[in-house]
Design a protein that fits this description.
Layout: H1 2-13, E1 21-24, H2 34-40, E2 45-48, H3 63-75, E3 80-84, H4 96-116, E4 120-123, H5 132-149, E5 155-159, H6 172-180, E6 190-195, H7 196-202, H8 210-220, E7 226-231, E8 233-234, E9 245-246, H9 255-263, E10 272-274, H10 284-296
Parallel strand pairs: 1-2, 1-10, 2-3, 3-4, 4-5, 5-6, 6-7, 7-10
Antiparallel strand pairs: 8-9
Length: 299
């Protein structure tokens, strides 16, 4: 076990020149178990949940837990860590009760991320449900309140969405508008997460207009905002407006865009995270996908 873990760690550290590369890993049994699971798939980056994502229950990170996590992280090959917040949070909701509960949950997530020393927190914009402009304003106001209340090292990376229903943030312009509503004093704590499956489903053609998509991203949002890339193939065709992930090369994107992403000098240092189907053992699919991505990068 130790030899296998050491091999995985060495392999993960070998990708530093490309920037951190990894996957979402399980934190079952405690967040301190996640770094070893990242090592098992040969990852130098990991995303995790700091709580059960489909429950409102909000755990607290005790000092002993934070110390154990940092100790295991230092012993691993992981050099970039991010959380993904709860699926229940909707900071754009017009319902006062749901929005208040969402804001409390979001603040507690930020607090846990700071306690663990995570570099990033990935968060979806909310669903406006009534009026888009009003929802955007509610979302920005809640983010502002949370960031002002919870100060720490974690950068908030708002994730571009697939455009389903009344969700916000499926266009570069709307994401830029959301970020622009945050006060200047908080701008340094903001970033963007680009999910390849989401933007493809939203209508950005990474297959036949790869350069055009990234040029538009640069013009509207800017590469300085790009804190995380989620590498997911899409089970949904271009413009399908649904969030359905597929294994790399086995969806409507195919291998070509991922090969280009892995060799694109503008994206070289950006942390990249898989959120593709795990399969039966939580290891094999991720390990194979990471090895494939490294081959694309020529390593």
């Amino acid at each position: 076990m130790m030899a296998a873990r050491k091999t995985a760690t060495t392999r993960a550290r070998g990708t530093v020149a490309l920037g951190p590369l990894g996957a979402h890993v399980s934190s079952a049994g405690g967040v301190d178990k996640a770094p070893a699971r990242a090592d098992e798939i040969g990852a130098s980056a990991m995303q995790l949940f700091t709580k059960t994502p489909n429950q409102w229950k909000e755990p607290t990170i005790e000092a002993a837990t934070a110390t154990a996590f940092r100790t295991q992280l230092e012993a691993s090959g992981v050099r970039f860590t991010t959380s993904h917040d709860s699926y229940l949070i909707n900071l754009a909701s017009p319902d006062d009760t749901l929005r208040a509960r969402s804001l409390d949950s979001f603040r507690r997530e930020l607090h846990r991320c700071h306690a663990l020393g995570l570099q990033a927190l990935v968060s979806h914009p909310g669903n406006f449900m009534d009026d888009r402009a009003s929802g955007l304003a509610r979302n920005a106001d809640a983010i502002t309140e949370a960031l002002e209340a919870e100060v720490g090292p974690t950068r908030l990376c708002m994730e571009l969405t697939a455009g389903q229903g009344t969700v916000l943030g499926s266009t570069f312009e709307e994401m830029a508008a959301l970020l622009a509503r945050i006060p200047a004093r908080l701008q340094s704590r903001l970033g963007v997460c680009l999910d390849t499956a989401h933007v493809f489903a939203a209508g950005y053609d990474l297959v036949d207009d790869y350069d055009g998509v990234w040029e538009r991203f640069a013009d509207v949002i800017g590469f300085d905002r790009l804190g995380v890339i989620h590498l997911n193939d899409s089970a949904i065709p271009l413009g399908g407006k649904k969030d359905r992930h597929a294994l790399i090369g086995e969806g409507h994107l195919g291998d070509a865009p991922f090969r280009r992403i892995m060799t694109d000098p503008r994206l070289r240092s950006v942390p990249k995270i898989l959120e593709t189907p795990k399969g039966d053992d939580m290891v094999t699919n991720d390990r194979r996908a990471l090895e494939k991505l490294r081959r694309f990068a020529g390593t």
